[in-house]
Every structure is written in structure tokens, then in C-alpha cells.
Amino acid sequence: MIQWEEMIYSGIPPEQFQTLTSILDGGVRGQNWRALIANIPGNIYKDYEVEEFARELHQGKSPTDRLLHDLSSRLYTVKDLAQFLKSMKHYRALELLDYYEPPRIVKNMPETLVGTEDRTVRLCCQVTAVPPPNFQWFKAKQLIDGATSETLIIENLKQTDAGSYICRIDNGKRETVIFSKWCKLKMSPPSDEILNSYEDAGCQNNPVVILENSDSPLPTMLSQAPVITQQPKSQTVYMTHPFNLICQATGSPPISYKWYKDGHLLVDELTCQLKRNEARAEDNGLYHCDVSNTIGLTTSREAQISIEYQPGQMGLPQIYKHPDPKSISIGDKAYFSCKARGAEPLRYQWFKAGSHDNKMLIGYTDPDICIPIESEDQEGRYYCEVSNDKFGRVHSDQAILRVLPSKQFTAIDKVALLIGNLYYRNGRQLTAPKFDITTMRNLLEKQNFRVTSYLNLTLTEMVNAIRHFCSTLGKGVYCVFYFVGHGFETGGQCFLAPSDVRMNYTSVDCVCSSWILHLIQHDIRNAPALNVFFLDICRERHDSGIDEILPEYDVKKTGNMYIFYATSKGYKAYEHKGRETPLGKTLPAGIFVENLEMAMTKPRSLDDIYRKLQEGIAKDQSCRNIMFPEVTKDLSQRRTLWDPICKSEDLQTHFSRLSLIQQFKDMHQPPDILCCTLPDVGVEIQVKCTSPVLFSNVLEIIVDTHDTPDASNCRSWVTDVPVHVSVEGGESTVLYHPPHSVTITCINDIQKLKGDLNIGVMVTYVNRNGETKEIKVPMNLGRPLVSVLELWRNGEEQIKEQVGGGQQAVENDEHNLMPAVSLLSDALNKQSL
């Protein structure tokens, strides 16, 4: 809703603000941002400041946007802006702001007019209103057909034209209707004395209106209505040459002049001469002049100004219709039109303006074009170049195309599973997956996905995690699966390497991406509305030296799939060993996710994300010729990762989703805080568990102790961690600031727990006798986080099923493991995945 008393930028809703900038950026002369500046009182901008706004166009930006921000900083309100637009008569912009002014008569008709037979009378009722008013004239109570303009012109007056006239005015937006005064038109035979004076001036056919101002039916010669003594003459004028229209008149009291072109008032032309120093194509037209005083009004003859090109000049194209700005939804079409005149043949070529160079639109060579809008990248400024062989070329004004979102799709839920394997049991380690998982989780959570993310899963754990993930899907759900780690492609299928693969591993030792798709898509009736895969793996063929029988999976097509590959078939995917962050730290990063992050930071279609991903990698000198992202897709609707969540209308489905959401919350809820007090010395131990928000199988245990009068130098840490899990870095982090001690222990591989998480807390302190004492306190943290899923169970049977049977998984060799890809030169500062 418009806030009239607020500053311009804050008082106009964003969507209307954007449309307003589009209208003023692409408006014709007199209706654009320059005209807006010209209509601001006080000349607040210098010429060089205006040109600074214009530079925004050359950078592909909006001068209107910058202007309105600047006006806001100068404390101009939306109400002020409306007044400026009103003075421009920019009714389209005022309508956008929902600005309304009821009709108000600023100059009414006289109560009485005296007309002369065979002359012309003009009855005028000047009105101001926003939107522009509608007029309807009446004689007595009889509607006059076709009399719907501000001025009623009655030509060749007859006695029957005498009578009372009135005008009804409204502007259509409200119920307000007003009427002018009644004007009584009297007819009188011409006075010989006055008619003779007309004839002496050569004005036998001049129209005249005489206002009655005395008891006499005609005025005396002391008070005389205007008499035109020199009529404007029609002229043919060469382009850029000057011309001058003159209308001389006499009358008493003093007279005033108003010029009209094609029936439209020229508001700045108020003298007996209308001058143009350089004729332009738009000066073509019919002109006349109204001469008036308090006694009456006289209209001149019409004069035709015809603009032509002089020899040698006539062929230069002249654009008389420029393209208009458009706001088009994805999936619709944008129509642009440009009309020009000049020596034939005229050639048209359309362009899209850029910040550094302009892109020619191949095939768009007609005056009228239609552009199918397929993505947000088509938003920008479009213009037409018109040329001919002999005389040169001209450019139209730039028209801004705004691309609006397509039909708003919704999801009933959005879930994502992220798996990053970096610590391979007997092979070359990776460095980026931990940070890539962090980045992807942040991106997806901003898009309202419920994200489960794991580090370092074995084959059994991957299979179970994927099965659990698939059980949370359903009709109307959006799902994302992301894997980063070692991998390969063979037989047209991608295989994802778990953290426990053996040295000469084969497809049996890995998870096939087609199997995951099969699980998700097998029930067409309940397939998710959107199924997006991000596979950040190498796609080289892996030669294990064994003839393999590859599994085949029936992946049903439902028009919901979009699969991103970090690289193309036969190529490797890479990671940077270190990229400097804004804080000066050097962190590893996968090239795929690094560029994906830039493409996903704002709402975009999946096609646009892919295009941005390609562009980003193509600009990276370290990998532009060795890594080529690719997609496969069958997506039939313009769904995006940013689509909002809308609860299902089916109650059973709705409550089922609520149950799954609660299960997800429970699965990511760390254990409650545990406290205990050591007897005799009163030392209180507080054990608090947190889950680092980026990983679902990592638990952080914080042990907090304080010194007491009976125990000083207190310290505590976690011991006796179960063998199935591991402590990150091999030891706890101790923060000791007497009398306060805090120890942080990060427990990885929580998914491997086969029972409760039982730990010991070791406490040391110095008693009053100066003796160092040591006490171990056992604590039970229950089944934290994803340990409740028991991902370690039933591995053998599920593995056989996921590889399609026919081959039995071989026990992993803990001492022999070959990396899935070879090292790239250290000089490239990258690793392949």
C-alpha cells in the first residue's frame, strides 16, 4: 500500500517501485526520468548531476532508481513525487501509484455568449483531474453525440444553435460527477460596422465569439472581441530548418494567444508567433491559434506544417515510434515494436544492451518482434537499430524488459540429504567435502529445506541413510540429494564411493546413483514434485580389472528430475586446496560448489543456476579447460528450489508430514544438560551437548566446572568414548581461565553407536591440603542425534539389493585402497574428487 507521507523509496511497495522505474527509464521524451527532473521545482540538479544519472544506463542500471533514491535522501515524499508526475501529465505513472484527484473546474464557461450566424463558437470548460477527466456536452437536457472533449466546437452557427449548454465531467475512478455552469448561447445578426472591420482586415470567414457584457446585444467598438489581421500560413519545411507561424490580431481589452497542434494545447506557446529553430519529424501537423480577451474568443484558420527531407538528407531514418518497456512472466512472450521513416529500403536490427557491449539478437530484423521469455537472464534493455545503405543508422530509445516469476508453484515439504566423504580408510584423502557440505546446507536451509547432512559414511550407512531419506518423501515434496567424494562412471551409470571402499573396488562396493533414483521414482503416484541431484564426483571410467555385470534400474520418468554433474562424462572433478576468505583464512573448496554457491544465492530457475554454474567455471583459469559441468533433466514444470511451502489440503497427508517434521526435530535434538556435584568438595560438573548445525552425525560435548573453596585448579574432560565413534583431532580442547574450566570434545560418527552413548568425565582438582585429586564420573547421554536410526544395521542384505544381486560384496581390505582418481599437478593447487 502506498504511504503518501513516507519518503519515496520506503513509501512505494517494491513491485510498484520497480514498475515505476521501468516506465520512467523507457519513457519517450517528456514522459521519462529527465522530464521528471525538469518538473521538480527549484532546479535542484545541475547539468552534470543529470548526466551522472544517465551513466547508469550505460552500465545496464536504472537512472530512475538512482534518482528516486536520491530524492528520498533529500526528504521528498511519495506525495511530492505524485505532484511532479501530475505536472508531467504522466497519468500512467500516477495510476500505478493509485493517485486520485476528483475533477475540479479551474475555468468555467461564461453565463452568456453571443454568437453570429455562419461563424464558429467554442465552449470550453477547463478541468483538472487524475486520472484525466471524461466530458459529455448537453444542449438543454439533450446529449450531444460525439461532444466528449474539453471544448465544444459549433461551426457555421445557425439560429437553431441558440440555447443553454452544459458539460458533465467525471474521471471514472470514483462516483464523483460534476457539471459546469449553464452557458446561454444567444444568436444575433451581424453588425455592419463590425463586419466591415472584419472585411477590411481580410477576415471575412474568421470565426468569432462575442461575450455579452452589457444590455446591448453587441459590444461597442470601445470593447472589441479579438479580430485576426494576419492568419498563420501552411508551410513545407526541411528537416532541421527553422519555421515560424504568425497570428496577428487586434482587440480591446488586451488579447492573449493559445496555440494548438492537432487539437492539443501547446502549453508554452503564448505569443502571436510559434517558432521552431530546428524542425523535427514530430512537428508535422495541423496548427491553429485561439485569440481571446474578456469580450470574446476568435480561432484562426488551420495551418499545415509538412516536414520533408532536403536532397541528400531525406534518406536518414527517423524513428517515430520507439519500443515500450515490458514486464513479462517466464513462459510468456515480449512484443517490441519500432517504426521509422526514411529512404527505402530500411533495415531493422534489434539488440540487447549490456554494461560493456551490446548483444545483437540474431534473426530479429523486423520492425515488430516477439521474444519468448524463458529465463531471468533475458531481463535487460532492448533497442532497435534502423539503417539504410546510403544515409546511415539511428537507434531507438532503450526499452526495459522486466522478467517476472512464472506461475507460483508450491511444495508441501522440502527435504535434503547431503553426504560428504573425505576420510577414505586406506586411500587418498579429500579436503573440501566438509566445507562443501557446510556451504550446501547453508544454501538449502535458506530455501527452507530440512537438511540432514553426514560426513564419512560407509557403504552400509550410505544405503540405510538413503533408504531413510526416501521414506520421508512423497507426492508434493521437493527433495535434494547431494554427494561429494570419490566416484566414477561406467556403463552410463555413476557410482558413489563410500568411505570404506577397498583398494581394487568395483561397482559392487559403491552406491549407484540410478539405484537412488529408482527408490525415489518407483511409485509414480507418490513421486516427489521436484527431484534434484547434485553429484560432485569424477566421471572417468574406473578400470578395476574385473568384468562386471552392472545392475539395471527402472527409473520412471515423471517430469520432476534435474541432475547436476560437477563435470562431464570422462572428466574429473576438482577441488581447490585453499582459497582465501574475506577474513584472511585459507579454506579448501570444491570448484563445483564454489560456483554453485554464486548461482544459488538468489531465486533462479534450475536452468539459470546451470547457466551461471557454467559461466563461473568457464571464467576460472585453473579449471576452465579440464572441468565441464553437465545436466540431465526431464523437468516439465518451472519449479525452483525457492518455491514456498504450502501445507497439504489432504488432512491425512498434512498430519503425516507433521509427524515426519517432528521426527526430524527429534533426530537433531542434542541430549539434555546433565549436572552432578562431587561430594565433600562441592565441585559442580555441567555437561552440555550441542550439535554443530552443519552435520547430523557430529556431537559436541562441553564440560564446564568451577573452582570452590575446597577445590581449586579444577579441570575436567571427556574420557572413555565408545570404540565405534571417534574424537575429532584425537583429543579435547581445554579452555582454562581460573576459576573457570571449559572443555570441548567433538564426537564424530555418531551414526555408528550401537547403544547409549556412555562416557566418563575425568575431574582433577587441588584440595585444601595442596593434594591433586582425580575423580572419574560416568554419564549416560542416551541415543543422541541420528544414532536412533541405527544406520549400521542389516547392511549385507541391503547392499546385495542395491547392487542388483548377482554379486556379493567382498570384505573391505583395511590395508589396501586405491583412490578413485589420480592426483593433478600440485602446480594447479587442486585435487580431483
Could you walk me through the main structural features you see in this protein, from its secondary elements to its overall organization?
- The chain has 833 residues and is an alpha+beta fold.
- Strands 2, 5, 6, 8, 9, 10, 11, 13, 16, 17, 19, 20 and 21 form a 13-stranded mixed β-sheet that branches. Strands 23, 26, 27, 29, 30 and 31 form a 6-stranded mixed β-sheet that branches.
- The radius of gyration is 41 Å and the shape is elongated.
- The two termini are 52 Å apart.
- Helix content is 19%, strand content 33%.
- The longest helix is centred in the C-terminal third of the chain and has 17 residues.
- Strand 35 and strand 36 form a beta hairpin.
- The C terminus is likely disordered.
- The protein folds into 5 domains: 92 residues, Death Domain, Fas (Orthogonal Bundle), CATH 1.10.533.10; 162 residues, Immunoglobulin-like (Sandwich); 87 residues, Immunoglobulin-like (Sandwich); 250 residues, Rossmann fold; 110 residues, Immunoglobulin-like, CATH 2.60.40.3360.
- Pfam families: Ig_2 (PF13895), Ig_3 (PF13927), Peptidase_C14 (PF00656).
- GO terms for molecular function: cysteine-type endopeptidase activity.
Blueprint of the fold:
Elements: H1 8-11, H2 14-25, H3 33-38, H4 47-58, H5 63-73, H6 78-88, H7 91-96, E1 101-107, E2 112-116, E3 121-124, E4 126-130, E5 134-139, E6 142-143, E7 151-154, E8 163-170, E9 177-179, E10 183-188, H8 192-200, E11 209-210, E12 224-230, E13 235-238, E14 243-246, E15 248-252, E16 256-261, E17 264-265, E18 273-276, E19 285-292, E20 296-299, E21 303-308, E22 318-321, E23 326-329, E24 333-337, E25 339-341, E26 347-353, E27 359-360, E28 368-372, E29 380-388, E30 392-395, E31 399-404, E32 413-420, H9 433-446, E33 450-455, H10 459-471, E34 477-484, E35 487-490, E36 493-496, E37 511-512, H11 513-521, E38 530-536, E39 561-565, E40 574-580, E41 586-590, H12 591-600, H13 606-619, E42 630-633, H14 651-667, E43 674-677, E44 684-690, E45 699-706, E46 712-719, E47 726-727, E48 733-737, E49 740-748, E50 758-766, E51 772-780, H15 795-802, E52 830-832
Parallel strand pairs: 2-10, 13-21, 23-31, 32-33, 32-34, 34-38, 38-39
Antiparallel strand pairs: 1-4, 2-11, 3-7, 5-6, 5-8, 8-9, 8-10, 11-20, 12-15, 14-18, 16-17, 16-19, 19-20, 19-21, 22-25, 24-28, 26-27, 26-29, 29-30, 29-31, 35-36, 36-37, 39-42, 40-41, 40-52, 43-44, 44-45, 45-49, 46-50, 47-49, 48-49, 50-51
Helix pairs in contact: 4-5, 9-12, 10-15, 12-13
